[in-house]
Amino acid sequence: MPYQLHYWPTIQGRGEFVRLALEAAGASYVDVARGAEGKDVDAMLQFMESPQLTQPPFAPPFLIDGEVIVGQTAAILLYLGPRLGLVGKSERRRLWTHQIQLTIADLVAEAHDTHHPLGSGAYYEDQKKEAVARAKDFRLVRVPKFLAWFESLLARNPRKTRSSAHLVGGRLSYADLSLFQLVDGLLYAFPRATRRALKKAPLVAALHDSVAQHKRVAAYLASERRIAFNEEGIFRHYPELDG
Amino acid sequence: MPYQLHYWPTIQGRGEFVRLALEAAGASYVDVARGAEGKDVDAMLQFMESPQLTQPPFAPPFLIDGEVIVGQTAAILLYLGPRLGLVGKSERRRLWTHQIQLTIADLVAEAHDTHHPLGSGAYYEDQKKEAVARAKDFRLVRVPKFLAWFESLLARNPRKTRSSAHLVGGRLSYADLSLFQLVDGLLYAFPRATRRALKKAPLVAALHDSVAQHKRVAAYLASERRIAFNEEGIFRHYPELDG
Predict the structure, then answer these.
(1) Is B60 left (phi over 0), alpha (psi -120 to 50) or beta?
(2) SS3 B25
(3) Which of A49, A63, A68, A72 is the best residue to mutate to test the B interface, defined by the most B CB atoms within 10 Å of its own CB?
(4) pTM
(5) Which residues form the domain of B61?
(6) Measured between CA atoms, how close is B52 to chain A, in angstroms?
(7) B31 CB contacts (<8 Å, ≥6 apart)?
(8) pLDDT tens digits, residue range A155-193?
(9) Averaged over B90-99, what is the pLDDT?
(10) Interface residue A158 vs chain B (CB under 8 A)
(11) By three-state DSSP, how is residue B86 classified?
(12) Do the domain assignments include residue A201?
């Protein structure tokens, strides 16, 4: 039975980290709220809010695999990783991959806050001045700090080769896919600042490019299944927030 | 060999979620940067930044258990849970407990942002006006939304009894301890708003109280090992941010 992914149908958002893992592994899945099997956003919300669920997800994305329902992006990847061959076999390797994923998730949350520093309750237009201040700290302090950490992981990976590098071990993991997505989002939202920051993180830049060329990922990115970045998602391009 | 916990020595912060798990289980551990074994914050930072680490933590807290180094609060609890008997045995139960933990972590991050909506780069005093706006959204929208979810989990737990409720199954898990800590922090930072919100989440309030009475937790909370809440941590009491 194919995996069922439930996520907002018009944005990449947090669901994209799950989509990328499913796509890179060539897994069979349906993106339910995008109209698969005749369902839509209402069906997703109705499911989420049904009072008989004993383990209701707090928010999309969530994944259904038979009787298993998992929410929280990082937890979904923790579950899918071994099943899709996107994480090592040992507990230590799985834990390390997950730790990286959680750190990626932290920067993703901060990327969201650049355009909504006063909270999601008000429109961007009504918190633009504050967004400019928050985005400056994000671009100048936070992004370089995180990228330097990812760069150090790639540089220190004992399985690094001249032609390719991965965050964990010698093979593609879901953390690589997520780092690709994070960098891709930053390049969309803050193209000038991110290109500048990537000059100091050449291994991160190379990983981003090599993931984009991964056969199944490349096919996905070129397909209609890849929703374009837009100003409803987490990574939004507002030129006034770029450096 | 005792677990080594590395965290800032003067705040509860994210390290507190790990301390609570270790304390509730009666585990043997040293809180390194608090002067255990003659070490301090410098020793923690020096370790973290040593270039020969292939799996360097991004930030405290991190845990050392023999050769294993784990960073990220939720990943530390994922690792410790089974070892401390603070999570169920099946993969599904562990995943569910972890999913709850990640959702708790989301609200913890938002609690931090109430006093630093423009980023950690500037003092609270220099972003007070923005903090007032962000805290209002947090108090009126975010906290009730999250508490309602936790309440629903407690209400729906099939193993709930009349005298006690747990988030997962019929026994104490690290998610219960973390929800205690979240509520405790909210009660410190936003006493008026949180007491109001808890009236609509009586099972959450009861869980908070029952964890505080857990024998080992109560002994810990009364000890000098429990650092008092203060205005350097995540949960800060600024009366102007309360409702």
Answers:
(1) beta
(2) coil
(3) A72
(4) 0.97
(5) 3-84
(6) 8
(7) B5, B7, B9, B19, B225
(8) 999 988 877 789 999 999 999 999 999 999 999 999 999
(9) 97
(10) yes
(11) coil
(12) yes
